[in-house]
Amino acid sequence: MTNMNQDKQATYAAIDAWIDEHFDEEVKFLQAMVQVPTDTPPGNNAPHAERTAELIKGFGFDAEKHVVPEADVKAYGMESITNLIVRRQYGAQGDGGRTIALNAHGDVVPPGEGWTKDPYGAEIEDGKLYGRAAAVSKSDFASFTFAVRALEAVAKPSKGAVELHYTYDEEFGGIMGPGWLLEKGLTKPDLMIAAGFSYEVVTAHNGCLQMEITVQGKMAHAAVPHTGVDALQATAVLLTALYAENVKYKQVTSKVPGIKHPYLNIGRIDGGTNTNVVPGKVMLKIDRRMIPEENPVEVEASIRAVIAKAIADFNTQGGYTGEDAVRVDIKRLLLANAMTPLDGNKPLVDAIQAHGEAVFGEKPPAVGTPLYTDVRLYVERGIPGVIYGAGPRTVLESHAKRSDERLVLEDLRRATKVVARSLVDLTA
């Protein structure tokens, strides 16, 4: 047993050394990933997949290119998606070894305003790499790729397999990304690790309901406002009703560490025609985060009831009836279920915690997160998964979805070691 432990420790040390020796190459690979924009919307992600496949071919990795049909992608609201699978088989199929999938998504929200760096420059300053998707989650294109390279260079597993899943639909919910690969039967791993941050192992996450609400009034000239019905005034009543729900949500707490309570966010409002026109239509988009204990069907029904009551109250108070009554149309944009832990995720948690403690000097806790991710799509199909990768302690520190998104390169180096070491254990 002592000799076996010594051999394992020697393997881990060799893994670390290999990653250190190739770290400049890993950083350059990440820079190349960041330098190809994948703003979603509009969601033209195929060029990034092509560039990824081209670069990893130089590592001896052949990527299967799974092109989602153009008509499906455009109906979904995006422009192009090519999902990639890299299969690395180490033993004969049926040898008792497990297939471990590593999933990172390449699509990302547009840069927005306020940047002091080029969002696609991948500039390095004070040990940090700046750029849109530098932290979430092109960093894990790099960490996962180089973890597998280190595994094969040093440990040379003799059974099991590893799959790299590079997908391009996390921002819209994952249905055309890993969801599409799973639905088509293109993959069914035994365990999976999805892109995340370095200081915790995420085993559960919130669900998310996104809806588009269109408030229909009657447009009129501002000089004769009584001839119209102001959709914006009705929307103001609706906004007040929706935001009031957040007060109630604070009383609904989760038992999952890392997750607090539900929250409703109104992320976008569009409406009106011109300054001198009574608004006839206003559209808003809402995002409702659901804790794992909530029932998504009940959550949606509750929000629809709040909307209906607010508009009905506006019509009653204003005396609007018949054709003058304000109408509301509701469209569900996304329903992402919460991720709840599967019993089979213990080998993942144990390996990452052990090596996280060895590499970072502290054991990463197993917690939940208020985010929602692609992992739920694997878990819903009975595939145990966790979230772990390269990044800081919090989303706030990473500036994900904000200006000057950045990644501390030392986190990338160490997370790559943790994942590679974990793969040694998981493919043994």
Automatic annotation (TrEMBL):
Residues 203-310 form the Peptidase M20 dimerisation domain. The keyword Zinc applies. Keywords: Hydrolase, Metal-binding, Zinc. GO terms for molecular function: acetylornithine deacetylase activity; metal ion binding. The keyword Zinc applies. It comes from the Bacteria. Its cofactor is Zn(2+). It holds the Pfam family M20_dimer. Its EC number is 3.5.1.16. This is Acetylornithine deacetylase. It comes from Comamonas testosteroni. The lineage of its organism: Bacteria, Pseudomonadati, Pseudomonadota, Betaproteobacteria, Burkholderiales.
